[in-house]
Peroxin-7
Amino acid sequence: MSGARCGAVRTLRVPGRHGYAAEFSPYLPGRLACATAQHYGIAGCGTLLILDQNESGLRLLRSFDWNDGLFDVTWSENNEHVLVTCSGDGSLQLWDTAKAVGPLQVYKEHTQEVGSTCYVPGIC
């Protein structure tokens, strides 16, 4: 994993992973979540990356692996540590970045891959 700074552009390379979605935290300035997948989402696993951005670049704060590609991520509007992701196996995952392992809950609601998600207040 390498981070580089070129002017205002910041890059984070994670070997074997391709980014699908990124979202800044509504609570913590510079906190970023990124949903990734192996093999461009065609096959393989996924990883949720939690990053902090500062003047020196991007720093990996925490990462969570999932058994299928993660295609979207959204932050909770009620809790600064909670995120929801969706994946190629048709499930939604509820994560807590304050915990070292996850997910907190998995909702297997779809029969095919899920490509996007949004936070619905009152659910999480």
User: Anything to note?
Assistant: The chain has one domain: 16-108. The domain at 16-108 is CATH 2.40.10 (Thrombin, subunit H). The longest strand covers residues 57-66. Residues 1-6 have pLDDT under 50 and may be disordered.
